[in-house]
Design a protein that fits this description.
- There is one protein chain.
- This protein is mainly α.
- The protein has one domain.
- Helix content is 76%, strand content 0%.
């Protein structure tokens, strides 16, 4: 399913990565505020604090939606950049990689697989000529094609969603103060799990951006070396 009809030009994702990182940091901060307000709700059980918490949850949902859109833009550009640096072994085309995020149930696996494939294909050590590797091997930093961070990120995201669903179920059947307290605690657990997942995603996005930039630099140098080599003979 990889793109093979045309090779796009490499376009640096630094700006989008910085924007996405900033938005994810905002999400973390709002999550922390929401947890604090949720704890206040448990302690005081005040209708005023409850209303404030609900308003900030609306802000939280908005922030995560915007971050989600920017993340998909970043992901699309990152996969296009892989084509620009000569990667032809991608398991998914750029449109497929985005579309799979919106397929219920299947996205539980394919989101993880799409990001894993991106990490693997962004390895700067892959796709270089033997001559280039032989000449520069001692000076090049070695990169891994695998990372546990993706599994951790997706695991925390799924756990957060599950806890949020449980919290929502409690909220729709609240009949007394103990139910309200339980719903608040479950909601805070969901927020805490989402914070960890978001922090891991920030690390992942920035590492993959650096990997792609390094891959582009090596690919460009390798291509220039191969063009000069025949002239030297």
């Amino acid at each position: 399913m990889a793109d093979i009809k045309s090779i796009p030009a490499f376009s640096s994702s630094h700006l989008v990565t910085t924007l996405l990182t900033g938005l994810l940091v905002v999400c973390v901060l709002i999550d922390l505020i929401t947890i604090a307000l949720g704890y206040s709700r448990v302690v005081f059980l005040s209708s005023v604090l409850t209303g404030t918490a609900d308003n900030d949850r609306t802000a939280l949902i908005t922030a995560h939606l915007i971050s989600g859109v920017v993340f998909l833009i970043w992901l699309y550009r990152a996969r296009r950049n892989l084509l620009a640096v000569g990667s032809r072994a991608q398991r998914y085309s750029s449109p497929w990689a985005i579309g799979l995020f919106f397929v219920p149930l299947l996205n539980l696996y394919y989101v993880y697989d799409v990001v894993t494939d991106l990490w693997k294909q962004s390895n700067p050590d892959v796709g270089l000529s033997d001559a280039f590797l032989k000449e520069h091997a001692s000076r090049l930093e070695q990169y891994s094609s695998k990372t546990a961070l993706i599994g951790l990120w997706w695991g925390f995201v799924i756990a957060s969603v599950v806890m949020a669903r449980i919290s929502g179920t409690f909220a729709s059947h609240v009949t007394d103060i103990p139910d309200l307290i339980s719903e608040s605690w479950i909601g805070m657990i969901s927020d805490a799990l989402r914070i960890v997942g978001t922090i891991i995603l920030i690390v992942l996005v920035n590492r993959m951006d650096m990997r792609l930039e390094e891959k582009h630099k090596r690919h460009t140098l390798d291509a220039a070396t191969q063009q000069v080599a025949p002239l030297m003979n």
